[in-house]
């Protein structure tokens, strides 16, 4: 059954990334030094997830209205509602405004000013991105990646739990890796037409992005390993830091699997499919969850 064009415009398939909003709450649940009312925290975090789904959907709709001509050059994006002519750019902008207003109302009405400010800042960042930052090489990748630690922080604010900056750093480095991999896949898929679809691609090369992906994979693992070895982290979870480092094994497996997909297979253009469908990546995520349960039990 085909998704209605108005819903497709919001790209619900991309909403999986908004589950990062729960990250701060998940780590707080395992914190031996934290105590809080679980049900209100979970409900507030869930409202934050929905608010970010709506806000990101509004951003997608706005971007599709602005990029319709360029999207028609892309073999997959040309099927999007605006690029294919199923929704007009004006209707897409009106839908984006309505959905974003709903996101702000939900954020402000559920978790208060902190979540409202986070959602508003996310939207403002995306507006600046569309307005010009997307044309600046490497900066545009950093702007895209910054939205992920912002989700983690927003979720912690909504749930009323603290989150260490190290979690944000780990999330940011991993998001940089995924964004660089996506740009490399676009460059390979579109070839000489790549700058016609996304102007910033003329400033990149397959080699430079490949090196960036490899380096960022190492940085992401180093950040995660360093966090597990911190005395404060061991005290937080009430276990030895050496045991926590064991949870880095499936992290390394996942990173190596991602490098294989991006560097050897030329993939990475649809990261949401990798994280939701690839058996190797799903296996790594499952092992990571199991390793945490084993370490904390």
Number of helices: 15
- The first-level CATH class of the largest domain is given as Mainly Alpha
Distance between the termini: 44 Å
What is the total number of structural domains? 2
Write down the CATH topology of the largest domain: Tetracycline Repressor, domain 2
Beta fraction of the residues?
Answer: under 5%
Roughly what is the average pLDDT, rounded to an integer? 89
CATH fourth-tier homologous superfamily of the largest domain = UbiA prenyltransferase
**Low-confidence parts:** none
**Secondary-structure element sequence?**
HHHHHHHHHHHHHHH
According to DSSP, the number of beta strands is 0
Shape summary: globular
Helix content: over 70%
Backbone CA Rg: 20 Å
> Biggest sheet, open or closed, and with what strands and sense?
none
Please give a quick description of this structure.
With 297 residues, the chain is an all-alpha fold. 72% of the residues lie in helices and 0% in strands.
Descriptive labels:
297 residues, mainly alpha, Tetracycline Repressor, domain 2, globular
Structure description:
This protein has 297 residues and is mainly α. 72% of the residues lie in helices and 0% in strands. The protein contains 15 helices and no strands.
Compile the SSE list and pairings.
Blueprint: H1 5-8, H2 23-29, H3 38-66, H4 68-71, H5 89-110, H6 113-131, H7 139-159, H8 165-190, H9 194-197, H10 206-229, H11 231-237, H12 241-245, H13 248-264, H14 271-277, H15 279-296
Helix pairs in contact: 3-5, 3-6, 3-7, 5-6, 6-7, 7-8, 8-10, 10-13, 13-15
